[in-house]
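Subject: Sanity check before I submit

Could someone independently write out the structure tokens for this chain? I want to compare against mine line by line before I put it in a report. The sequence has 402 residues.
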Amino acid sequence: MTAARIALIHYAAPPVTGGVEAILGSHRRLLANAGHDVRLIAGRGDAELVPEVDSRHPDVERFFQGLAEGRPDTGLLDDLRRRLTESLAPMLADRDLIIAHNVLTLPMNLALALALVDTGFPLLAWTHDLAWVNPRYSDFHRPGSPYDILHQAQPRTTYVAISRLRQGEIARTMELPEARVPAIFNGIDPADFLGLSEETLDLVRRADVLDHWPVVLVPLRLTRRKRLELAVEAAAHLRSRHPDLRLVISGPLGPHSADNRAYAAELLDLRRRLGVEREVRFLYELAGEGESHPVSDRAIRELYRLSDCVLMPSESEGFGLPALEAGLGRVPLVATDIEVLREVAGPHLHGFPVEAGAETIAEVLAGALATPPAAFRERVLRSYEWASVLRQMESLIEEIRR
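---
Independent answer below. Compare away.
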């Protein structure tokens, strides 16, 4: 879409911590990074400041108190509305639309709500909370002006819900069809939440692993007894069911045998023949000529956080440390059903017989990926990752600008 000129408005802006302010900051970053011209207007925080926008402004608080007591000071309301209109006019003159978070549906600053409607600009009323259906705001459930703005749809205003629950509440309260109340959920940045270091972020971006589901981690060296060919073949079986699959083999070449390089070449050839170059990632390939293995101990730990499943197709293990790491990382472990791994993982092992073929391993992997933690992560990535939210926001902005 072509870049839009957007005014984001809320009572306060980051660095106020958490809540609506955190979402506001994320929207600002997302839209700006996507090339949009974003002007953030608030009463406090890191923004272009208009004092009367702040819900804590003395005059705004004085009006709010009278409003709660059922005796709104209309003179003060008119004065605040005029001051806001004068202050906002030059800041909004070159904007295409306004996105106001929680301003039109909470009573914290109704002068601001009315002033924004007065502008005549297309207005997205981003609704996190709805006072008219919340018993905590019963003091404001009164007939007449200015209370009516809390439950009556305003002209040139699109009410945006942050959940299906809010969508239904807005539609009923404002007497709007649900189809006219878009639902765009709050989002999350998986890499930020997981605390991935810059080193690991660079690694997974170069390997094209970030933001994919499922991510199957194979934390093993490239030696024949690890039977990594079964992992590659299992990926080929699994990709029709999970087309966004990434199978990440994180280990280096085994250090003690010249055969390990020949084995690595065989694995790369197998990957090519099966056509799974996109799905199967050998991280040792990211090392430049003469460079050491690009995966540090820290990166390995962080890869567990990023993964949906750990796969160990080894024919034998002396202990199987990755099984412990999977447990601490709360990641399902799919592995050969050998005695030492049964000893380490106990009933938590998603096992397959040592003689099993890749198709069987793919089925066991599919079962592990259907367990609640892994399946829930897919839901989060599909519906709540910020990239998905941005696409929905841009689609709505484009529609509003037509």
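---
OP: Matches mine. For the report I'm noting this point. The mean pLDDT is 95.
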